[in-house]
Amino acid sequence: MTDAQETAAASTPTEGTAVPLLEPREGIPPVIADEAALAEVVAAFAAGTGPVAVDAERASGYRYGQRAYLVQLRREGAGSALIDPVACPDLSAFGAAVADAEWVLHAATQDLPCLREIGMIPSKLFDTELAGRLAGFPRVGLGAMVENVLGYVLEKGHSAVDWSTRPLPEPWLRYAALDVELLVDLRDSLEKELDRQGKLDWAHQEFDAIASAPPAPPRKDPWRRTSGMHKVRRRRQMAVVRELWTARDKVAQRRDVSPGKVLGDAAIVEAALALPANVHALTALPGFGHRMGRRQLEQWQAAVDRARELPESELPQPGQPLTGPPPPRAWADKDPAAAARLSAARAGVSALAEQLNMPQENLITPDTVRRVCWEPPVPADPDAVAAALASHGARRWQVEQVTPLLVKALATRV
């Protein structure tokens, strides 16, 4: 009996009614927190068959960084497992044991970085969220997909809790185990639907691209992403944001807490705009109130003072250096012909995405369209356009679908 059949046998849905999935089939598995128990799980999963369902829980908003605080797994013949990656920080043995298996994840790009940190790197995968997008499902969250495709309701009340908590409460562990309970069944159903729509090969190309992608490089000037940064116009003010952001990041990393819990983005922006001359002036600003200790206030004022004292030559430049075309709103003035090409390309992509029943950004990324329209190949024939798309990372299926409409769009005249 398959997983899906077992679940159906446990509770038979009334036609048209989704059934709440309240308990894992074998109960809540114990949390693996020592090497001996981990070795047993590795052996069990190595002896299992078929794809491996994988999920990870982080503590976003509570802890510094995006490390995994719980890893959930399920495989036919092995059942489900919950592993504590704090107690067992090296899971490379598990990764090696199931290296040849397909890993099934939901929104894989969210979990792969933290899994990579603990030695779990898939060679092939199936992303149920991306599969849902390609198949045209309007809602692609795990709960919505399980309900719409399989007819079961997942309890999602613990998605934003602090997973660094120890010990983890039983309701949280139940929720975590249920997240992988039907993941392989969802994968199987989506594979059939993609095959029916003629999109299965497209999906495999997407999955292969995700699995083979290198780790993302560190962001350049991450302080520029401070919420409210659009209010900060002057270079001296930008320097205050940079100094406060950097000081906050060091404190957050040392204390292992989310930077927002140390000092809010809104407070950083207020200090940048006001350029307070001393701690007394800083205290009067929103976000630096009476609850903040003297030592904290002094360290923030010291960051402001560093920015105030910088020579002009060391102040940050406004905006980030552009590595591609300018914002589309400026195209009409800078290059009317390029603006006309982009307008035609966007219309073509929109129409084709609607015809294929998928989001436009999954058909081709907007950035790729902009780059090709801003600097089109010469001549803009099918072979050259296809090569340009591939050079920007478009997959083979995307190149085949989008090239004809881009060739037409690039021929547009003002």
What does this structure look like?
This protein is α/β, with parallel strands linked by helices and 414 residues long. It is built from 20 helices and eight strands. The strands form two sheets. Strands 2-5-4-3-6-7 form a six-stranded mixed beta sheet, with helices on both faces. β6, α4 and β7 form a beta-alpha-beta unit. α6 packs across α8 and α10 runs antiparallel to α12. It is flat and about 65 Å long. The chain starts with a helix and ends with a helix.
How many extended strands? 8
**What general outline do the C-alpha atoms trace?**
flat
> What order do the strands of the largest sheet run in, or round the barrel if closed?
2-5-4-3-6-7
**Helix and strand element order:** HEEHEEEHEHEHHEHHHHHHHHHHHHHH
Q: What percent strand?
A: 5-15%
What class would the helix/strand composition place it in? alpha/beta
Mean pLDDT: 93
Low-confidence segments, given as residue ranges, are: 1-15
Query: Helical residue percent?
Result: 40-55%
Query: What's the Cα radius of gyration?
Result: 26 Å
Largest sheet, in brief, is: 6 strands, mixed
Task: Supply the number of helical segments.
Answer: 20
End-to-end CA span:
64 Å
